[in-house]
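sorry for the late reply, my laptop died twice this morning and i had to redo everyting from scratch. anyway the thing you sent over, i finally got around to it. pasting the sequence first so we're on the same page, its 325 residues, then the predicted structure underneath. double check i copied it right bc i was rushing
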Amino acid sequence: MLKQKLFKLAAVTAAMGAAFSAYATTELKVAFNQSDKHPQFEALQYLSDNLYKKTDGRYKLNVYPNELLGDQRASLELVQNGAIQMAVVANPLVENYDKTFAVLGLPYLYSNSAHQEKVFTSDVLDNLFKSTDKFGFEVLTAYTAGARSVYTKAAPVQNMDDMKGKKIRVMQSDTMIKMLGCMGGTGVPMNQGEVYTAIQQGVLDGAENNEITYADLKQYEVAPHFSRTQHLMVADLVVVSTNFLQTMSEEDQKTLRELAKDSTKKEFELWNAQISKAEALAKEKGATFTEVDSSQFQQSCKPLTMELLKTPEQKALYEQIEKLK
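ok and here's the structure:
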C-alpha cells in the first residue's frame, strides 16, 4: 500500500515538473558594456518585454550592464562559444570576421539619423547579418551610437578652412586619422581619458564625438563650440549565439528577429531624446551648437570612401544604402 502511494506521489510530482517545464521561462543572458541608463539598455529591456509577451512567457532577456560579463571582445567570444546567448558589440569587432561590415562605418555614409534608421530597419542588411552564422553568431539588428561631430576650444568649425591646422582627437584608427585629414584637420589618436586635459593644455584644439559623450564627460568646459559635422554615424550590433538559435523553434526565431528589428526603432527614439537632454545640459553650461553644411566635407571625403570600398560585396552594399537616401 505504501509503495503504491509513493508511486502515485512520484507520478504526480513528475507530471507537475513536466507541466512547470513546459511553461518555464528561458533566460537569455545579454552582455552590455554601458550603464543601465544608456538608451541601448532601455531598448534591450523593451525587446525583452515584447519577447516575453509574444512567446507567452517562454523567453526573456536578462541584460548585464557595465561589462559584468566582460568587455565587448570577450562577450562576443562567449556568444560564439554558447556560454551566453547575446551581446551588444561595436561594428569594427564584427568587421574582423567579415570585411563587408566595414561599409557601415564609412564617412558620411548616412545623410542623417533618419537615413541610418531607415537602413537599419529595412531588409538591406538581413543577408549580411545572417552571414556570420558560420562563426557561431548572427547579428539580429543594429543600434545607433549617434553621429560624431567636431567640437573645439577657440571657435566653431563651419568649413574646411576652419579645420586647417586644427589638431582633433580621434579614436585609435587609421581610418579615423585619414577621415580628419580629408576634412582638412589633423587627427590625433588618443585615449578618451586624456582628452579633457589635452584640450585644456592646448595639446589638442578639440575632439569629435556624439552629444551624449560630450555632455557626460563635461568636455564642453574645455571645448564649448560643438559643430554638427556628423561625419561618422557609428553602428553597434546586437548579436545572438547560433547554437542558442538552433534550440528555438522556427516560429520563435522569426519572432526574435522581428522584435529585435522593432527594438531598433525604439532605440533611435530613446537616443534622440537623450541627445536633446545632453544638448540642453551643455548649453546651460555655456556651450554653443552650430549647424554645419557638410557638403564640402562630404565631397572631400569621397575619395577616401572609394578607397575603403575594396570588394564587390562592399560596393554592392554601399549602393543599396545610397538608394535609401
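Confidence is low (pLDDT under 50) at residues 1-22.
thats about all i looked at so far, will dig more tmrw
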